[in-house]
Amino acid sequence: MKEAKILIVDDNKSILSALDLLLNGSCKKVKCLSSPNALLSELKEDNYDVVLLDMNFKAGINTGNEGIYWLNQILEYNSGMSVVMITAYGDVELAVKAVRSGAVDFVLKPWENEKMLTTIEMAWKLSRSRKEVKNLRLKESELIAEINRNKNHIIGTSSAWEKVMDMVRKVAVTNANILITGENGTGKELVAREIHRLSNRSQNVMVTVDMGSIAENLFESELFGHKKGAFTDAGTDRMGKIEAANEGTLFLDEIGNLSMPMQAKLLSVLENRALTRLGENLPVDIDLRLVCATNCNLAKMIGEGRFREDLLYRINTIQIELPPLRDRIADIPELVEFFVNLYVEKYNKKGLSISSDAIAKLQAYRWPGNVRELQHAIEKAVILSDTHLIGTRDFVFKMDEFSAVDAYGGTLEDMEKQVILGAIEKQMGNLSAVSAQLGVTRQTLYNKIKKYGL
Ligand SMILES: Nc1ncnc2c1ncn2[C@@H]1O[C@H](COP(=O)(O)OP(=O)(O)OP(=O)(O)O)[C@@H](O)[C@H]1O
C-alpha cells in the first residue's frame, strides 16, 4: 500500500487523528478533511486512490443521507473512485444502502485497526485495477483508431470492380457473414478490411487468421485459446483469436484449409455464439461478424467430403466474387500509377515514370498472380530502373502467360489490336462496355478500330 493516496473526511477530529496515525506510515499520502465541503476541490488537486467517508456529518442529525449525498458527488466526479464508508453501529442498514449506491465497503465504529487496514488495502487494490482497466480501454480504443485511420487504398473504376465495391458498401453495414472468393492476389484481404472499416464494428478490431499458415497441432489453441496447463506447452492463460475478435470482425483467410474437426468446432461457435477455451469448462459468449476468404472451390470440396455443407451455409450468407485482373484490364493504368508512385517514394527514385508502351504491355499480360504480381513487377522495375522512364524491356514475362506478344510477333500495335479484339469479343460487341473495360473514350476506341480495320 506504499503507493496509496488516501483522503479521509470526517467531522470528528479525534477520528481523523486516529486514522492519520494508523495510516501515515503505510501510505504515500494521507489527507484529512473535517468538512466535506472541500472534498471535490481536494479530489481535483490530487490523484487519490481511496476516500474514507463518514456517513453522518451534522452533529445530532444521524440520517446518514449526508454520507450518501457526498458519496454520489464523488462518484459523479469519478465513477471509478473506491469509497469506504465509516459508520456507527446503528447505521448498518444505511451502510448497505451506500454499498448499493457504489461504495466499495463500510467500516463500523469503533474499528479494529487490523480490519481497517485490510479494508483500505482491498479498496486501494480495487482502485488500482479499475485505473488499469480504464487505461487499457483507452489504449485499446486509441490503437483501434490508429489501425482504422488509414483508409484502404482500393484502386479500380472498371465496371467489374465497381460491381464488387457496390456490393461491399451494401453488405458492410449488415451483420451478415461474408465469403470472399477469387484467385490469389485479387484483393480478398483488402476487401475484407474495407468491409470491417465500413461496418458498425469498426470501433473494435478485425482479427485475421491465416488458416494456411498455422500448424495443425496449434490450430485449436490459436483459435479457441487455452487455460494455463491445458497441455504441455500451455505456460500461461491465452485468449484465442476468435475471442479476441469479440464485438469486432473475424477474418478467416484460406478457410478451405480448415480441417474437418476444426470445421465442426467453428460451426458450433457460430451456432451457439459461445466458445470454451481449451482446458476450461465454462463457455464465453461471443458476438462475431465473420468474413472468410478462399481461392478453393468449396462446393467441389463438399462433394469430395472435405468441407462441411452446413458450415458453408453459415459462412456464405453473402458471397463476393473478385474478378481476376485480366478481366478488368481497364484498372491496370490506375493500379500501375498507384504502385509506381508508392515505390518511387519508397525507394527515393524521384522523377521516375512509366511509358505508355509499358502500360500497354502490362495490359496484355494475363497476370496469373493478379494485383499482387503486378505490384511486385512494378516494385522490381522501380528498384532496377536506372533511367527516368520504365519501359517495356523492364517487364519480362513467361511467354505462355503472354499470348498477345507470342501470337503476333511482339509489336506494340499488334498487341493493342489483340487486346481490343479480345475486349470486343468479351463484351459481345458492346462498344461502350469495351471502352469502359479498356479505359479509353469511345472516340479513341473508334479511331483505333478504324486504324486497325477491325
Ligand atoms: N484494388 C486494389 N487496389 C490496390 N491494391 C490492391 C487491390 N487489390 C489488391 N491489391 C494489393 O495486392 C496485394 C494482394 O492483395 P490481397 O492480399 O488482398 O489479396 P488476396 O486475394 O487476399 O491474396 P491471397 O489469396 O494470396 O491471400 C496487396 O498488397 C493489396 O494491397
TrEMBL record:
Tagged with keyword Protein transport = no
SUPFAM superfamilies registered for this protein in UniProt: CheY-like, Homeodomain-like, P-loop containing nucleoside triphosphate hydrolases
Provide the species name. Labilibaculum antarcticum
Q: What is this protein called?
A: Sigma-54-dependent Fis family transcriptional regulator
Q: Which PROSITE patterns match?
A: RESPONSE_REGULATORY (PS50110), SIGMA54_INTERACT_2 (PS00676), SIGMA54_INTERACT_3 (PS00688), SIGMA54_INTERACT_4 (PS50045)
Q: Which InterPro entries match?
A: AAA+_ATPase, AAA_lid_NorR, CheY-like_superfamily, Homeodomain-like_sf, HTH_Fis, P-loop_NTPase, Sig_transdc_resp-reg_receiver, Sigma_54_int
Q: Which UniProt keywords apply?
A: ATP-binding, DNA-binding, Nucleotide-binding, Phosphoprotein, Transcription, Transcription regulation
Its Gene Ontology molecular function terms?
A: ATP binding; sequence-specific DNA binding
Where 4-aspartylphosphate occurs along the chain?
A: D54
Q: Where is the Response regulatory domain?
A: 5-124
Is the DNA repair keyword given for this protein?
no
- Gene Ontology biological process: phosphorelay signal transduction system; regulation of DNA-templated transcription
A Pfam family name for this chain? Sigma54_activat
Tell me where in this chain the Sigma-54 factor interaction domain is found: 154-383
